[in-house]
Amino acid sequence: MNIDLTDTTSSDINAELVSARRSLGSPATGMVLTLVIVTDEGNHYDALKAARGASMEHPSRILVVVRRPGRSPRDRAQHRLDAEVRMGGGAGSGETVLLRLHGELAAHSYSVVLPLLLPDAPVVVWWPDDAPDHPSRDKLGTLAQRRITDAAAAADPVTALARRAETYAPGDTDLAWTRVTPWRSMLASALDQRACRVAGAVVEGEGYNPSTELLALWLTGRLRVPVERTVTEGPGITAVRLLTDDGEVRLDRAGGTLAELAIPGAPDRHVALHRRTTAELLAEELRRLDPDRAYERAVRLGVGRLGDPRHETPSKVSAAPSPVGPPGPGSAPQRAAGPEEPTEPAGSAEPAGSGGSEDSANAPGTADTGGGTSGRRRNRRRERGT
Questions:
Q1: Category of 338 on φ-ψ map: left (φ > 0), alpha (ψ -120 to 50) or beta
Q2: Burial class (CB in 10 A: 0-12, 13-18, 19+), 89
Q3: Which of these, 249, 318, 275, 63, lies nearest to 181 by C-alpha position?
Q4: pLDDT in tens, 27-70
Q5: Does pTM top 0.85 for this prediction?
């Protein structure tokens, strides 16, 4: 069902939503959140398609905000709200409202969207292309528990990622980070299979790919070893190599769909590691609406590094500061991540799944793969033997 409304108001749109639900025989909403998409005419189709795919897992009210301020002074002086209400059929498992804000009204999207939010339900705001410099201070961003951006869609992805690091607030996340979730899980699982000490790492991927930069920063912060960033033709991240005392752990995805995992002492095997669609990425982010501590640590570690104009790709990400002793003579200088950068003692453990969780943080270069107490006992026996 599609309903077109011209020169309308938010109250009229709400009335049409109620009327449409009754005509379809579903007066109860049954939706779990409101997803606000801020985009333009050229990108709203792809964004809406991804949101409909994500709504199959998360039934939601989707509000697409398209600003059309006008080019001439006459157009900018006028203001009008046009809306299209979509429900049932290809609209996904919820409700969709396409809002076109003309003229001066384009600068007041907050007042248009606020009456259309689902009552007593969380709000997520997604900027698929042109995100504000400070999402949490944006008028629409202040409505949301979760604010989603995509640095990969920016003209300069690494610079955009640096801005995300500088302006991070709890609830912010970026789809560039969501894209590395399978890589993080695979690498954590590989290190869990045997106790070993990691001496360094190499991350290979496309030049100026924000996901590659974030994965390198995450490995730096968690393993506390030097991580080298090298450029390949892609697509996306192509390989990660962990240099351990037992040999090289390698996760290689040359084709963008199937990866090869090599672990010392075990036969090589193929694992599924395809490049996920935007709908899949968005669905993952909507599963958890609490602050993503893993993303916060990784992106804040890049403050100063990503924002340095001398930062080039390929780059070498220096090791995170060790909690014990001064850096060695070969350590690269680094900038402080700021007073708000979270710190944690060695030995804390968190799972490696998506959202706000991470794999365990150990002493520099050490991967605790013994599954908790037994792994620590093996490590202590090894230390006593040396």
A1: left
A2: exposed
A3: 275
A4: 656 889 999 999 999 899 999 999 999 998 999 999 999 998 76
A5: no
